[in-house]
Design brief:
TAT_signal; single chain; two-stranded antiparallel ribbon; alpha/beta; DUF1501; eleven-stranded mixed sheet; 13 helices
């Protein structure tokens, strides 16, 4: 049957609903057996029963994707090789923030200075993987699995969740496009969504009559035995338990209008919703600065550092009554070379700096077993602190979890940047 474009079709509303539901992908990603991923709207949920409860500690892991240059963020001005290696892009000591005899912070990190001065922000330098790995994706996988030599696909944050007796998809949450990072991937249930609004049942909107979509799904799945029925019921429970987050204030206008700003605003809103989320992950991209890293006057480093600092400062200020629960750790898959290249950039390196902020942090200083920079053929910052030692100190002090469970086969070295 055909119809004239000028004559409205009687089923136009129905077609609009169908197109809207199709765009949201009602059937994209069906549930399989336990451990598979369920897609509900744009939210991803791994199958397990939901049990919302207030979290006593919250860990936010911010990954600087692309290998951030820790020597630019936390500058070793007291090492003379730093200025020899970077005659054009080095930052003069008198421009650095909170400078001590060896280190100082990049000037664009100024929004974080109140946290530093209050002892709520620390840096740990010369950190990284136990052996060099200059492949972005291989290094990311190794950092996030944190279990060298294992063939088990389970990340360290998933193991941390598993150390808790509670089992809920709300314990772990990735802010992103639906694919959880390796650190959260594994047997334990987690969620992933790009925004608070994405955590919904696809099609449960203005077209649904008297919660018809929800009622239909419950009718279909509530009595179904086995993993498939359990998966669907856990999904419904997680969505119901998430409702307080949607009621929490959206303070995103206080953040930079950037991907990181939007993501951290979502993280803060989830934390303030207090529905039992314990670990959250978020990314900031574009740190792969082989060229145009630049100087204090121009370049990618000043832009990214400014976005990082303003976004994190806004996030810490936005936590409200949940502030005393939240610890933030900032890391990257590896560092960059000591010596600048011809294009005002830096190639892939080894050692790096990590930042830790918030609850339990003994801040206002740089923790480092400094190896000294060199101008030899490799010209890399050597790793003297395995990154897992940094994470293990947070895990043990804030969650009371066994580091042997979260980081199998690894014995962490005490660093002292967290209260016990």
């Amino acid at each position: 049957m055909s119809s004239s474009p000028s004559t409205p079709r009687p089923d136009a509303a129905c077609c609009d609903e169908f197109r809207a539901v199709s765009r949201r992908g009602l059937f994209t990603g069906a549930i399989a057996v336990a451990g598979a991923t369920t897609i509900v709207g744009s939210a991803v949920v791994t199958a397990a029963p939901a049990m919302a409860a207030s979290a006593s500690s919250v860990l936010v892991v911010l990954s600087l994707r692309g290998a951030a240059d820790g020597l630019s963020l936390v500058v070793p001005h007291g090492d003379p090789v730093y200025y020899q290696a970077r005659p054009r892009i080095a930052i003069a000591k008198d421009q650095l923030l909170a400078a001590d005899a060896m280190f100082g912070l990049h000037p664009k990190l100024e929004p974080l200075l109140p946290l530093w001065n209050a002892g709520k922000l620390a840096a740990v330098h010369a950190t990284g993987l136990p052996a060099p790995n200059r492949s972005h994706f291989a290094a990311m996988e190794e950092v996030e699995d944190a279990n060298p030599g294992s063939t088990t696909r389970q990340g360290w944050l998933n193991r941390l969740i598993g150390a808790d007796t509670r089992t809920s998809p709300l314990q772990g949450f990735s802010i992103g496009g639906g694919v959880v990072p390796g650190s959260l991937f594994g047997d334990e249930p987690v969620m992933s969504a790009g925004s608070v609004q994405d955590v919904r049942i696809s099609g449960d909107d203005k077209w649904a009559v008297k919660d018809g979509r929800k009622r239909s799904l419950h009718t279909m799945w509530d009595a179904v035995p086995g993993p498939l029925g359990k998966a669907m019921r856990s999904t419904f429970g997680a969505l119901n338990d998430f409702q307080p987050v949607k009621s929490a204030a959206d303070n995103s206008t206080a953040y930079p209008d950037t991907d990181l700003g939007h993501s951290l605003a979502t993280v803060a809103r989830i934390v303030r919703g207090d529905v039992g989320v314990e670990v959250l992950t978020v990314d900031q991209g574009d740190w792969d600065m082989h060229s145009d890293l630049g100087t204090l006057a121009w370049g990618q480093m000043r832009q990214n550092a400014d976005d990082l600092a303003r976004s994190v400062a806004a996030f810490m200020a936005d936590l409200g009554t949940q502030t005393s629960k939240v610890t933030l750790v900032v890391l990257s898959e590896f560092g960059r070379r000591t010596v600048e290249n011809a294009n005002y950039g830096l190639d892939h390196g080894f050692g790096n700096a990590m930042l830790v902020a918030g609850a339990g942090v003994k801040g206002g200083k740089v923790y480092a077993n400094w190896p000294g920079l060199t101008l030899d053929d490799d010209a890399d910052l050597l790793v003297t602190t395995d990154y897992r030692s940094v994470l293990a100190e947070i895990v043990s002090s804030r969650f009371g979890a066994s580091t042997a469970t979260v980081f199998p086969g690894f014995t962490p070295s005490p660093l002292g940047f967290m209260t016990t």
